[in-house]
Amino acid sequence: MRLPTSAVTAGSLIGGWQLARRTGNRSLGGAVLAAGGVLAGREWARRTSPAVTAALVATYVGAFGLSHPLAKRIGAWPSVLAVSALTAAVSYAAADRRAPR
């Protein structure tokens, strides 16, 4: 079964942020983020080259890092949604999309 890494990355970024926000426990949010990264990373490694996997991991971690300063400019929800959409789009294009037949 092919796991849609675009959904995993977006879901873990949004879910981790919401869990941390609602519980006040940033570590719980980080655990969701880490679990999503490991799950997606395993799929990326299976489907793509090491270079593409590394680029996707960097995109995922970078999106998390970018969401913080971006939230100060546009707000928390728009920031998390923007980086989640960007990460999902990159993941879809690089790993999830099936090659044309």
Concise account of the structure shown:
Keywords: Membrane, Transmembrane, Transmembrane helix. With 101 residues, the chain is mainly α.
Supply the key terms.
101 residues, mainly alpha, 4 helices, 86% helix, globular, membrane, transmembrane, transmembrane helix
Reconstruct the topology from this structure.
Blueprint: H1 5-23, H2 26-47, H3 50-74, H4 76-96
Helix pairs in contact: 1-2, 1-4, 2-3, 3-4
What does this structure look like?
This protein has 101 residues and is mainly alpha-helical. The chain has one domain. The chain is built from four helices and no strands. The protein has helices spanning 5-23, 26-47, 50-74, 76-96. The longest helix is centred in the middle third of the chain and has 25 residues, at 50-74. The chain is globular and about 35 Å long. The two termini are 19 Å apart. The model has no long low-confidence stretch (mean pLDDT 94). The chain crosses the membrane at residues 51-70, 76-95. Keywords: Membrane, Transmembrane, Transmembrane helix.
